[in-house]
Amino acid sequence: MDCVKIGKLIAKLRKEKNLTQRNIADALGIQNKTVSKWECGLGCPDLSLWSKLSAILGVDMKQMMEGEITANSPDNGNIDNVRFYVCSSCGNILVSTGSASIFCCGRKLEPILPTDSPAAIKITVEEIDTDYFVTIDHPMTKEHYLSFVAYVKSDKIYLNRLYPEQSPTFRIPITTGGKLYVYCIKHGLMVY
Questions:
Q1: Please, are residues 84 and 73 in contact by the beta-carbon 8 Å criterion?
Q2: Number of domains in the chain
Q3: Residue 100: partners with Cβ closer than 8 Å, 6 or more residues away
Q4: Residue 13's CB: how many other CB atoms inside 10 A?
Q5: Which of 69, 109, 128, 164 is most buried, judged by most C-beta within 10 A?
């Protein structure tokens, strides 16, 4: 570990968060002299403190231990590169339109890849006012349900979170083209 590099990063991140060395020390239950020592490059945090320190500073622990935060490439805004992520611990649904390092519940998430052959799901679409009312034929039990449905068109994503034992219906504005993404907890991500 490069303590000088890590110390400079800790100082930079602390200042970005408008925290003092005392704030960090109090949150970690250590002396503020210890934080000063780290920032001067005269030592590194104890292994037991890294997790809490990374949470306080709001950064990935691995990158902080390397003393360098790797920035993602700028998002070119290409909605065709949409990627969906689902946290296996809490069920959060996250979306990116380019490469990203996505973390939830302390774990790095990998994008969900669409299945090669989507399950035969019956989808019914009705026009109601200025929307399409979409109904998907699915059992929606606690063991087998649709977690989300997303309609991706041009520069917009209409994301609908669904829950077990809920009716698998949703509304989207009337538009032409686009793709419908359906995520079933058993069959994975399907694209229509």
A1: no
A2: 2
A3: 72, 83
A4: 19
A5: 109
Q: Angle at the Cα of 145 (from 141 to 146), degrees rounded to 5?
A: 150
Task: Tell me the average pLDDT across 112-123.
Answer: 84
Domain boundary among 66, 96, 118: 66
Contact of 178 with 152, CB cutoff 8 Å: yes
Same domain (yes/no): 117, 50: no
Residues 96 and 175 in one domain: yes
Residue 178: domain span? 79-191
- Do 96 and 177 belong together in one domain? yes
Contact 132, 171 (CB under 8 A): yes
pLDDT tens profile 2-58 = 999 999 999 999 999 999 999 999 999 999 899 999 999 999 999 999 999 999 998
Pairing of strands 146-153, 131-136: unpaired
Distance (Å, whole) CA 39 – CA 21: 9
Output the pTM of the full model. 0.65
Position 106 in a domain: yes
Regarding predicted confidence, which is higher, 163 or 98? Answer: 163
Q: Is residue 74 part of a domain?
A: no
